[in-house]
Structure formats: C-alpha cells, structure tokens
Amino acid sequence: MKMSEKMSLDKIIAKINKKFGEGSICRADDFPKISRIRSGSILLDMALGGGVPVGRIGELFGEESAGKTWTALLIAKQFTDAGIKTVFLDAEGGLDISLLNTFNIKKDMFEIVRAESGEDYLEIALQLLESSEPALIIVDSIPAIVPMYEVEEDFSKIKVSGNSGLMSKFMRLLANSLNSQSKNPAEGFVGSTIILINQLRDKIGVMYGDPYGTPGGRAVKHFSTWRASVRRSEWLHENEDKKKNRVGQRITAKVVKNKTFPPYRDATYTIKFPPESSLVDEVDEIVVACTSLGILEMKGSWIWYGEEKIGHGMTNSIEEIRKKPELIEELREKVYLRIY
Fold first, then answer.
1. Which of 91, 214, 305, 340 is deepest in the core (most CB within 10 A)?
2. 3-class SS at 319?
3. Fold of 281-340
4. Mean pLDDT of 295-319
5. Around Cβ 93, how many Cβ atoms within 10 Å?
C-alpha cells in the first residue's frame, strides 16, 4: 500500500470490526460500565464496591465451614430474583437442596450439575457461556475438579499438578469466552458471572508470612477479577450466656483482590441457620453502614439522622428504624449512592 493510500485510524478500526466482529475495538466512552448485582449483604456490597461485578470471575476461599457456600447461595438468591439463572456445579457433591428453601431461592431458576470428571464439569461451564442468556455459574469447589486420569489411575500414579494444570487451561478459556460473550452485548445483556469456591491448604515449610495457600494454581488468582477470603468470626447461640444451641454464624469476608474497586475492604455479616431466617438482618446492616459512612451520626450514646434523634444506643436505634419502612429505603439508597 502506498503512503497516499493509507487509511485513517478510524477506517482501519471499522475494517477490523467488520472482520473480527462489531465491538472488537471500542471507544472508551462507548465501553459499557461495570454492572453490579447486590450480594444480599449491604456490608459485603460496600467491600466489593457496590455489589458483585456482573460478567466477571470471582473467588471465595477459606477454611471448612467458614461460610463460603452460604455466601455463594446468598449471592445466587439476588441473581435469581433479578431473573438470572444460577447453575451450580456441585463437584463436591455436598449441596443440600433444603438450603434453597432456607435462602428462598426459586428452584426453577437454579440448575445443579453432577458430572464424572473435572474435564466434564469445566466443559459444561464453557458450553453454558455459549448461551444468549446470562447466568451465574458457581463452581463448588476447585479442589474437587479431578482430572479423568486421576479418576481412572490408582493412587501410585497420581500427579500433584493435575488439578492446577486443568484449572490453568480452564481459566484461559473461561476468560476468552467471557470476553467474547460481552464483546458486543445486546441491550440488557452484560455476560455471565462466575464464582469459584476454593479451600485452603497448608504451605509446607513456611516459617513466615501467610502459612496458607489455595489449590488450583496461580491462574485462578490471576484471572479472577475479585477474590475474598471468608472466615467464621464467631458462632451465634440461642443462649449467648450459656453458649448453647448454635443458631448462626458471623462471617467476615476480606476482599484481597478487586480490579473494580479498591481492595482490602472487610465485611462482617450474619447468617442464621434454619428455622431462623438465613438471610442477613438488613436493618442491622443498614445502621452499621450508615454509621460508618456518616449518614447516621453518633452523638454521645444517641444516634441521629440529620436533625432527627433516632434512638439511644445501637440496639434501640435498629429497632426504631425497623418500624419505619420508608426510612429504611431512604437509608439504603443513600448507602448505595455513596459506594457506587
């Protein structure tokens, strides 16, 4: 091509988009903003930056019984309520269907996958991304993604890197599929969302620093948009004085990575076991959030909202606000306006 025949950059971009698909190159002012769906906990939303980023990969990791799956189901409740189906890859085989009732999740919006091998689970996940409808895909859990050769071979031939190698390839293909899915989104379509549940492993020989690591290799960490360490802060008891009959747990999530919001934000939220409501106490969270953001102000032992005296102490103020649905809605919206 002669110098005089060279095209402008805009024409080249138009040519590229025609060849590779509209949206392959997109101006920054046309690039879609990050869409979020609330997690079910206002405090967790504050830590994440306003809710769970849609069309992105997230990871929840922690020790056993820390609240990872419960947190994932809390998020699933919000997605299904928003009309987005959840597909739960139950590689651990530990999902209790009664939990769907506990979280009041619509069963016709919740699909459960059971497969024979890790390759099957991951292939199913990738095929789901070919849909024209967005979905929430939960993988429970990364260590349970077992390569077929491990299933078929005896213990003497097991390779330590089997799971990591499989996850490394999966994460590359997953990122590619999500990019393709959201390259030129139709109106109202922003792509599927992935939540990976992971466990902790002891680092052998580590004397200093964090003694724990997570399975799946470094690819999981690199490709995840956000990662949250989940731990149980304390048990809740029916009788706190005698510490009898556990009725729930207080969960602390620390967002250790976030490409959409400043990281290292903590959230402590409460989930109660059946027959109690398993969902978080929203009014309690609203008061905590509003106090930390300065929307509600503590003056002495009283809590004020502007010129209005709400109540004496945190507990009384929570109960007073609970009686006022319009105030609850007003405070909720003010919280999200601050954190978006």
1. 91
2. helix
3. Rec A Protein; domain 2 (3.30.250)
4. 95
5. 8
CATH superfamily of 32-280: P-loop containing nucleotide triphosphate hydrolases (3.40.50.300)
Per-domain boundaries in the chain: 32-280, 281-340
pLDDT tens across 70-125, in order? 999 999 999 999 999 999 999 999 999 998 998 999 999 999 999 999 999 999 99
Does the pLDDT of residue 132 top 60, yes or no?
A: yes
Backbone angles phi, psi at 226, to 5 degrees: -140, 150
Mean pLDDT, rounded, for 176-204: 82
Task: Quote the crossing angle between the two packed helices 118-128 and 162-181, to the nearest 10°.
Answer: 10
- Cα 184 from Cα 181, distance rounded (Å): 8
- Reported as half-sphere exposure (CB side, CA atoms, 13 A), residue 73 has a value of 25
DSSP secondary structure letters along 105-168 = --GGGEEEE--SSHHHHHHHHHHHTTSSS-EEEEEE-GGG---HHHHHS-GGG--TTHHHHHHH
What integer is the mean pLDDT of 137-141?
98
Backbone angles phi, psi at 39, to 5 degrees: -85, -15
Least Cα distance to 273 among 69, 30, 99, 127 occurs for 99
Distance between CA atoms of residues 31 and 247, nearest Å: 46
Most confident of 100-114, 171-185, 227-241: 100-114
Residue 169 pLDDT > 60 = yes
Q: What angle do CA 46, 47, 48 make, to 5 degrees?
A: 90
* End-to-end C-alpha distance for the chain, whole angstroms: 49
Sheet arrangement for strand 244-258: 110-113, 85-90, 135-140, 193-198, 57-61, 226-239, 244-258, 265-272
Residue 62 structure tokens: 């922690």
Distance CA 62, CA 199 (A): 5
Nearest residue to 124 (alpha-carbon basis) of 162, 179, 87: 87
